[in-house]
Design goal:
Aspartate Aminotransferase, domain 2; 37% helix; binds pyridoxal-5'-phosphate; 386 residues; Aspartate Aminotransferase, domain 1; 14 strands; alpha/beta
Length: 386
């Protein structure tokens, strides 16, 4: 690696150590590398920590969202309300099952959907809402469920970014009927690629276990463990959405680090908030009154009248060896969603996606590195360093 690379402050860097390396090596040495006992152990430990009844590990959060819609029976002719302001996989999941994603707006301080933003998007065809806990900031689930349940609308949590965050004192994962997580390296803990669905419904958990493995009546691991001849059946058209035991071995170590990672991220987020507090009009990521973020993303939103444009600030940061990112994308502005349905206008989404950016934040970030980021933002606002 060149010296320049070492100096660049990345947007994110997973916290992986020799413990993960040896856990992966043990899985390899055991000879069982596909979905097996380590995946089961990973599911059990993740469910225990979140207070969830069932957890089903899959290949990504995208496939977790897809399976969630399949077990709900959502399909052609159905509408699924999703925030446009999200990673594109949220909206794509609805299309995978032949349903129509319908975009709704978000509320500015949390960047999350709310009762007020969901309601105008509801139609007689609405079957489900996918609620994104944006950048690890919990959405107000009780209020959203109170809106949706009486209307027979199912609620899925896209908690891709939200492991370790909490809602009304409980970890995200244990409070809803279908909660989907990601273990991509951009998220808070990682298995390289990977995902999980937590659910309170045993029948859904069972069906998702089958669907992730080609619709097989008996898992490969169970067949292998059996002393009798077991000939599996294929009960429905399934998928290959499995996680490997190598990934799960890494995930088990990562789960042990989760609390520490979240504490560190929260401390760094607090430092950003403190040292950027006097930038006039700047909005920043923070805890909502009812929950605790894991700060998977730390966004700032530039006010109108900020001395420089958002993209110029991004460029200035890159010139200073910092890798920021634009804020959360808006799916309805992408070519893949040209002409897509939205019953409501999306003014907050459009402002946020145009005016926001994500600042680097990762477990092993030093305060000196963070100060470099803070100084560039303050400098572009015409303020001196702190
Ligand atoms: C990252 C992300 C996803 C996709 O997760 P993968 O594990 O990469 O499939 C889905 N939704 C949101 C909100 C995300 O941030």
């Amino acid at each position: 690696m060149s010296k320049v690379d070492l100096d660049v402050i990345p947007i994110m860097k997973p916290w992986l150590g020799p413990e993960e390396a040896s856990a992966a090596a043990e899985a390899v040495a055991s000879g069982w590398v596909a979905q097996g006992p380590r995946v089961t152990a990973f599911e059990e430990e993740a469910a225990r920590r979140a207070g969830a009844e069932h957890a089903v590990a899959v290949s990504s959060c995208t496939t977790a969202l897809h399976l969630s819609l399949v077990v709900l029976g959502v399909g052609p002719g159905d509408e699924v309300i999703v925030p446009s302001l999200s990673f594109i996989a949220t909206a794509n999941a609805a299309r995978y099952v032949g349903a129509t994603p319908v975009f709704c707006d978000v509320e500015a301080s949390t960047q999350n959907v709310t009762v007020e933003t969901i309601e105008p998007a509801i139609s007689p065809a609405t079957r489900a809402v996918i609620v994104v806990h944006q950048g690890g900031t919990p959405a107000d689930m009780d209020a959203i469920r109170a809106l949706c349940e009486p209307r027979g609308i199912e609620v899925i949590d896209d908690a891709a970014c939200a492991i370790g965050a909490s809602y009304r004192g409980r970890p995200i994962g244990g409070h809803s009927s279908l909660v989907c997580f990601s273990f991509h390296p951009r998220k808070v803990i990682t298995t390289g690629e990977g995902g999980m669905v937590m659910t309170s419904q045993e029948a859904w958990a069972e069906r998702m276990r089958r669907l992730r493995e080609h619709g097989m009546s008996v898992s490969a691991a169970a067949r292998h463990a059996s002393r009798d001849l077991v000939i599996e059946q294929y009960l429905e058209t399934g998928f290959n959405f499995r996680m490997t035991d190598i990934q799960a071995a890494v995930g088990l170590v990562q789960l042990e680090r989760l609390d520490q990672i979240v504490e560190r991220r929260r401390a760094l987020a607090e430092r950003y908030r403190r040292y950027l507090a006097d930038v006039p009009g700047l909005e920043m990521a923070g805890d909502p009154p009812y929950g605790r973020s894991n700060f998977q993303s730390f966004w700032i939103v530039l006010p109108d009248g900020f001395p420089v444009e958002r993209d110029d600030l991004l460029r200035t940061m890159m010139e200073h060896g910092i890798s920021p990112r634009r804020g959360i994308m808006a799916a309805h502005l992408e070519p893949a969603y040209d002409g897509a349905v939205h019953h409501a206008s999306l003014p907050v989404t459009e402002r946020l996606t145009r005016r926001s950016l994500l600042l680097p934040l990762f477990h092993v970030m030093t305060e000196e590195q963070q100060d470099r980021v803070i100084d560039v933002v303050r400098g572009s606002a015409g303020l001196g360093s702190e």
